[in-house]
Amino acid sequence: MRVLAAMSGGVDSAVAAARAVEAGHDVTGVHLALSAKPGTLRTGARGCCTIEDSRDARRAADILGIPFYVWDFAERFTEEVVETFVGEYAAGRTPNPCVTCNEKIKFEALLEKAIALGFDAVCTGHYARLSVVDGVPELRRSADDHKDQSYVLASLTPEQLRHAMFPLGSSRKPDVREEAAERGLAVAEKPDSHDICFIPDGDTKKFLENRLGERPGDLVDAETGAVLGRHTGVHGFTVGQRKGLGIDAPAADGKPRYVLSLEPVSGTVKVGSSQELSVSTIDADRAIWPSEQPLTGPTECVVQVRAHGGMAPAVAEVDSDGDAVRMSLREPLTGVAPGQVAVLYSPDAEAGDVVLGSAKISATA
Amino acid sequence: MTYLDHAATTPMLPDAIAAMSDAMSTVGNASSLHSSGRRARRVAEEAREVVAEALDARPSEVIFTGGGTESDNLAVKGTFWARRDADPARRRILVSAVEHHAVLDAVHWLADHEGAELTWLEVDDHGRVRPEMLRAAFEQGHSDIALATVMWANNEVGTVNPIAELAAVCAEYDVPLHTDAVQAVGGVEVGFAASGTQALTLTGHKIGGPYGVGALLLDRSTPAVPLLHGGGQEREVRSGTLDVPGIHAFATAVRVAVEHRREVAERTVKLRDELITAVRSAVPDAVLNGLPADSADRLPGIAHFTFPGCAGDSLLMLLDAKGIECSTGSACTAGVAEPSHVLTAMGADASAARGSLRFSLGHTSTQDDVDALARELRGAVDRARQAGLAGMRKQKQEA
């Protein structure tokens, strides 16, 4: 196959590309320039949009002996990922930009261009197991529990998955690092990227404040309706948040208070006890089914609502057109925010939990 | 492999390789007073005479440098500083909009850090600076002008400027003219004295010499403040131990390139015209940029095309995969293809400026190179068109 390897400059995508080469594919490396300011040189080698990262990716491609190019997706990234991120926060939701980037950039913009240019697949360094049998994709959790990225890939359509390749799915991160060192890839010791690549200092609140300005509103006790204080914008809060609420007086029962909901139009942030934060039903829509088969009838599964943690056993039921899902949780979850993605897994300890589907959370109860 | 990127760098001439390896096996600092030093100095001074003779200059006008970028920086910054020191009112630089980044970024730096004011000389649709445009700039006032800088021939589209006419205009106002002749030397006839310019940049690796060595031809009556201070070599304008093997090989390349210029140019023009015909027959709507194919004011080796509906970087990748090496004409350090400032200055819109490729021929080019391109171009363009500008902006037909 002709494979386009997306190379971020990190160790994972470099080893993924190396494995694709070794599997006998005709591999071309591409680094995506995503930053609107390509001159930014960030120290510490985190993230994925610096000149340093581009150079690291190029060096890895040199060592693998594959052609390498830099493609400019900055405009599209800004439009589809950064603007969406800001817009979702402004609307009181909590988006995951890595999900959007996989959905809209790596497996849409990049994949479209790759296919048009004659490639068969896009290869990335994601940790998730993917197989396609008779044209039906099956996405499973990684063999490395800590690194598993099936959550951020679960929003890919069957067609996107059919053109995806994740050579690291069955590996553990320490082994990948070791393999990189054995292959003479200088990025073997490069630190993992964390946080959001377009917010290099990790200060999401400040980033959103710069973008959205102050949008003052009230902090309200959900039970009594009492105004407990003022805040500078709903985008500074996430459902389930406890710290940084800026409330002086303790709750009547002396227990900590959490953000329960965000109302962007009125600017109201409702707070209350951890019990009130508990969610036992999740409604989600815009469902995507990797196997192209929506669930039929009540289905026992495990629901995950965040990239890390936030898992609970549940029974899922899907509406007739396969778009909306109601998940009745067998154990309550906290910190479930509209806008987040709910991923449904069928547990399989041996070969990795199978992704049944994913949908965007619209409401909780 | 089909190498169609001679304007980026061209293979070293066998004579230059021989000269370099000969000189590398001897020891001697050209500034030393003993016999080894004298021998090294003799090689360097003979090289200076060779370069001067080949380019209609005096040996004392030849300043050896580390290449084109350094020569451009020395000419632009050094002349600016010296002229401003003599008269603080002189802060303005006349500069063409299609210069190489070695000039562009140098004048931008002077504007940002040294209070220089920039007056941009526009080019016509062919990329040419016309003498009347230069004159118009002078007529707006000239006592504050430190220097003018206009390239002899453009590295992207291959358009040759009327340098002697431009220099004559500058002379009327007694303002020095620097010209970046990196692409011109070996391609067209270049004579320093006859050109009337005060400073001229050339470099080794574009003419079959080694990388990292070049020269600035600098008129004796045009002072320049040095960029590099130290041992006072090169009339105290460019300090640093002379790279004798590099200089020897560079001078050899200049001599050979100038001696054989006519025959190589004749051969190259013939191949270039066949390449243009082949491109047009494979892709009828391809647009040849710069002057018309039959113009005498084109560099022999460069053919630069816009392929409507294609992204230049896609096309480059597809041809590369078929063993054909060419260039989009400009690149930045991160490797992201920017729309060419040259095409933009010539009036092209951003998508045309992104959808362009430069094919450049040189002394080792053959008919096989043209044939290989003729074979592969159609398929690559078709594919690149399918990809269009995919990924660059959101598809509007999305639900």
UniProtKB/TrEMBL annotation, chain A:
It catalyses: S-sulfanyl-L-cysteinyl-[protein] + uridine(34) in tRNA + AH2 + ATP = 2-thiouridine(34) in tRNA + L-cysteinyl-[protein] + A + AMP + diphosphate + H(+). It comes from Prauserella sediminis. PANTHER family: MITOCHONDRIAL TRNA-SPECIFIC 2-THIOURIDYLASE 1 (PTHR11933:SF5), TRNA 5-METHYLAMINOMETHYL-2-THIOURIDYLATE -METHYLTRANSFERASE (PTHR11933). This is tRNA-specific 2-thiouridylase MnmA. The gene is mnmA. It is an enzyme of class 2 (transferase). Pfam families: tRNA_Me_trans, tRNA_Me_trans_C, tRNA_Me_trans_M. Its EC number is 2.8.1.13. Belongs to the MnmA/TRMU family. The active site is at C101 (nucleophile), C197 (cysteine persulfide intermediate). HAMAP family: tRNA_thiouridyl_MnmA. It is found in: Cytoplasm. Residues 281-361 form the tRNA-specific 2-thiouridylase MnmA-like C-terminal domain. One of its GO terms (biological process) is tRNA wobble position uridine thiolation. One of its GO terms (molecular function) is tRNA binding. The record marks H126, Q340 as: Interaction with tRNA.
From TrEMBL, chain B:
Residues 2-373 form the Aminotransferase class V domain. InterPro entries: Aminotrans_V_dom (IPR000192), Cysteine_dSase (IPR016454), PyrdxlP-dep_Trfase (IPR015424), PyrdxlP-dep_Trfase_major (IPR015421), PyrdxlP-dep_Trfase_small (IPR015422). The keyword Iron applies. Its EC number is 2.8.1.7. It is an enzyme of class 2 (transferase). SUPFAM superfamilies: PLP-dependent transferases. This is Cysteine desulfurase.
